[in-house]
């Protein structure tokens, strides 16, 4: 079932999800989180970090699996998702870095990196709670339009729109990588529960097509309709096309 909640804004959405995750971790210290980058999930990490701190929640056995990484970017680069996840999630929440995984964007090992990542998720018992943002073109992770519903972790080309959307994080559009490695749509659908968050008018069209449109590889986020446990959290602007 897809539950759609329209909330006051990013902070309220962050509190809502963090509350569920805090309770999940208290119930199961080995909770496995599916981690998204981008600006959208930041309020979740901030709110969860606050709960961890004020309630003394033990997160030492929590694992995390990031959705994606750019190909050919140095993991130490400020905009690599290795770096972003480390700064915004691992350190903020105080997770054990050895339990936080990001797919490898090393061009030399791309052939095997997808299968290795799938195996690491499986070995951890699968992702329990997957956090998702959505691209303006309906992508989830870096599954661009055309991504098969049953796709697994693999290398993908980035669309011009996504490169332009993400250019703000780089010195120039020429510095934005052209490929990424991403969990597939099928990988994402294996998680126990999905949280998809979107804020702002520029996401309204993608949100409407993801929730009300046909399930189609053209809008990879529409695949969430096939998942039994989904919570979509929107502000009024992102919900304006529903
Ligand atoms: C990137 C990430 C996605 C994210 C999207 C939206 O493309 N790979 O996982 O959902 O950006 O980013 P934002 O939340 O900043 O709008």
Q: Helix segment count? A: 7
Helix and strand composition category: alpha/beta
By CATH, the architecture is named: 3-Layer(aba) Sandwich
Mean pLDDT: 97
Overall tally of domains: 1
Tell me which ligands are bound.
2-amino-2-deoxy-6-O-phosphono-alpha-D-glucopyranose
Radius of gyration: 17 Å
Strand runs, count: 10
Q: CATH class, please?
A: Alpha Beta
Task: Briefly note the CATH topology name.
Answer: Rossmann fold
What percentage of the residues does DSSP assign to strands (E)? 15-25%
Largest sheet: 7 strands, parallel
Main sheet: which strands, in order across?
A: 1-10-9-6-2-3-5
Following the backbone from N to C, one meets helices and strands in this order, namely EHEHEEHEHEEHEHEHE
Which percent bin holds the helix content? 25-40%
Poorly predicted tracts of residues? none
Termini, distance in Å? Answer: 17 Å
Shape: globular
Describe this structure in words.
33% of the residues lie in helices and 17% in strands. α1 packs across α2 and α2 packs parallel to α3. The protein has a single domain, classed as Rossmann fold. The protein is built from seven helices and ten strands. The model has no long low-confidence stretch (mean pLDDT 97). By secondary structure, the protein is an alpha/beta fold.
């Amino acid at each position: 079932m897809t539950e759609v909640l329209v909330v006051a804004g990013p902070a309220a959405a962050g509190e809502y999800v963090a509350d569920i995750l805090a309770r999940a971790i208290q119930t199961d210290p080995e909770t496995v989180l599916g981690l998204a980058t981008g600006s959208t999930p930041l309020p979740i990490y901030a709110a969860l970090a606050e709960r961890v701190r004020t309630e003394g929640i033990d997160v030492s056995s929590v694992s995390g699996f990031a959705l994606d990484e750019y190909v050919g970017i140095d993991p130490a680069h400020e905009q690599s998702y290795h770096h972003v996840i480390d700064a915004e999630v691992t350190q903020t929440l105080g997770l054990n870095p050895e339990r936080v995984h990001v797919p490898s964007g090393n061009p030399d090992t791309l052939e095997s990196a997808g299968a290795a990542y799938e195996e690491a998720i499986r070995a951890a018992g699968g992702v329990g709670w997957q956090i998702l943002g959505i691209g303006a073109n309906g992508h989830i992770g870096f599954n661009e339009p055309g991504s098969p519903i049953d796709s697994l972790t693999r290398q993908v080309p980035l669309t011009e729109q996504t490169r332009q959307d993400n250019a703000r994080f780089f010195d120039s559009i020429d510095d934005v990588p052209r490929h990424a490695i991403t969990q597939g749509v099928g990988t994402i659908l294996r998680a126990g529960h999905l949280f998809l968050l979107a804020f702002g008018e520029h996401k309204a069209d993608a949100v409407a097509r993801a929730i009300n449109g046909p399930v189609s590889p053209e809008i990879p986020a529409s695949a969430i309709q096939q998942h039994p446990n989904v919570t979509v959290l929107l502000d009024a602007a992102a919900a304006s096309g529903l």
